[in-house]
Amino acid sequence: MSAHRLNQAGSKDIRSIKVKLGVHNVQQEQGQERLVKQAFLHPNYDEEYNNDIMLLKLEEIAVFTDHVRPIGLPLTKDEEVPKDCLVSGWGHTIRNVKQGSPVLQDLNVTLDENQLCSDNHQVCSSGLNGPAQGDSGDPLVCNGVAYGVVSTKTRNNTYIYMHIPDFLD
């Protein structure tokens, strides 16, 4: 999860945040709901989106089903990230409409070399299409492995993801 996303929630008690598992359409499916027991914010997170990553510990364990499965993580910090990836989330789909999509959206993105992301534990994609407002904390998946977490977007349409392999410890 993105630390920035938790900050957007304001002073909300962490134990009142619900996580939904195994849901594609939040208006038509229940899935598994779990309360968050504890949030582990990266100790060096700052408002400039450095180290914009956290782990959530749930009150109850997830029950694995056809729709709820663990996702792979990179094996080492030095593992090369594939260039063709998928980002998914329930962020805004219409500009200037402050409401997320009820249906999980996904988009293919191509990671590129970008000076913004060269040494900040980040990877980038760019272009007109990418994660939207409300997608912070959503996964960047490449070849079935979670390589990134959506962080932010710059004014020049560069999308920034926290590079999970740098945070494996």
Task: Describe the protein.
The chain is mainly beta and 169 residues long. The protein has 2 domains: 3-58, Thrombin, subunit H, CATH 2.40.10.10; 84-167, Thrombin, subunit H (Beta Barrel), CATH 2.40.10. Helices cover 4% and strands 34% of the residues. The strands form 2 sheets. It has a 6-stranded antiparallel β-barrel with strand order 4-5-6-9-8-7. The model has no long low-confidence stretch (mean pLDDT 88).
Find the CATH topology of the largest domain: Thrombin, subunit H
The CATH architecture classification of the largest domain is Beta Barrel
The count of β-strands is 9
Average of per-residue pLDDT values: 88
Instruction: Please name the fourth-level CATH homologous superfamily of the largest domain.
Output: Trypsin-like serine proteases
How many domain regions? Answer: 2
Distance between the termini: 16 Å
Question: What kind of sheet is the major sheet?
Answer: 6 strands, antiparallel, barrel
Strand-residue proportion: 25-35%
So what's the overall shape? globular
Low-confidence stretches: none
Q: What is the spatial order of strands in the main beta sheet?
A: 4-5-6-9-8-7
Number of helices: 1
Broad structural category: mainly beta
| Helical residues, percent | under 10%
Q: Report Rg.
A: 16 Å
User: What is the element string, with H for helices and E for strands?
Assistant: HEEEEEEEEE
